[in-house]
What does this fold into?
Amino acid sequence: MALQSLDITARSATTTPSPSARGEAVKLAKLIDISKCIGCKACQVACMQWNDLRDEVGSNVGVYDNPMDLTDQSWTVMRFSEVEVEQGRLEWLIRKDGCMHCADPGCLKACPAPGAIVQYSNGIVDFHEENCIGCGYCLTGCPFNIPRISKKDNKAYKCTLCSDRVAVGMEPACVKTCPTGAIVFGSKIDMIHHAEGRIEDLKERGYSQAALYDPPGVGGTHVMYVLQHGDKPELYANLPKDPSISPLVGLWKGIAKPLMNLGVGLAVFAGFFHFVTAGPKEVEDEEEES
Amino acid sequence: MSVFIQRYTARERSNHWVVAIAFVLAALSGLALFHPAFFFLASLFGGGTWTRILHPFIGVVMTLFFIAMAVRFWRFNRFTPADRQWMKRIGDVVCNRDQGLPELGKYNAGQKYLFWMMVVSIPLLLLSGIVIWQPWFAPYFPIGLLRLAVVIHALAAWVMILGIIVHIYAAIWVKGTIRAMTRGTVSEAWAKHHHRAWYREMTGK
It folds into this structure.
């Protein structure tokens, strides 16, 4: 259910405006400073604990990633990349992966179930599983490959940015637990300011390309990264350089919907008006004899 | 008194109606998932989740029975020179000016186009539908292919819905046609007027 303290600005498969009588909420953001992350996975544990999730115990395949991918039970995972950024200089880049909470969410755009995906006025994109029909369209809309369909109930799950905690003035569980302060949470403006300070510091330490990751292709995100190598986000376990909603999904959920409806409507009207103008095609009886 | 001649056997009619019923159910459930304006149709199937579950199975039934129907009818749907002449006068056909139209076999060019449109659309719908079929098959395909499949599925379904609207309207518009699929027979006058070459073949006149 929608939380009373969080207003909704966008709702999937809904053509009328969302409730908007109350004033604009402050836009929030989570900032993940990859240069401060030590890969301890405390955030993964906190996420599981707060959200009551228990993934299956996997097997060690010789890498630090555990679990290997996001699942319906693992809404955030550390992705470890060993990268030789220049010859002889190995860096271990550890990215906390999970929903980016896009300002222009592809999942919400693709979803056919009214109210299964909502965007709160504070920027959080949330799945309301009780309305989810399990079609998997959100997977096609997401430019970051985040939503996962549960094998238990065929519903889609992902990071909620702890909307339930945020609604009562708490920070997300991962932020609260992070021991190095690599994850911070607050208004988006404050987070951008904070990131600027971090980037300045990184540049002084030789990371000349350090940058904030807040991709404009999806209208900016409410989960942002500080990247040491801001010019090469792909180094961080294939973080897309310029993510956007696929043009195919744009076509399907954009122009195709009204045009196709119009086409079907016109065909029905054309038939009706043809009948009342040209009339039916009847075979006259005389023809039988002729 | 009109004399009637057989156009469809009981088996052919049953086959047609299984495809038709499956198509209507697939189209209604598919529209529910296509546009929020049609989501209310999901109620006919027991809600959104049931619509998502049932839609692909309905589609498979439609495909299987369409294949049977295509095997029965394909040989009557080959294009002939008369079809080209008939298409040139499509404006007259629409305006009910039927004098001097070429003699046609069992089907006219419009019916043949519908047939081949379905021969193309239904396999496209089946293949793209399997790619996006949750939870059974979709997890085995890459997301890029899913994105392509949803667009192909919507487009093929749209073409087919338009085609079927024309098909249903044509049956209403051309009097004496519907009984071909409900009773299996058409009047001699109807056959002579619309499909004279077929009429000659059937009666030897």
Observations:
- Chain B has a mean pLDDT of 96.
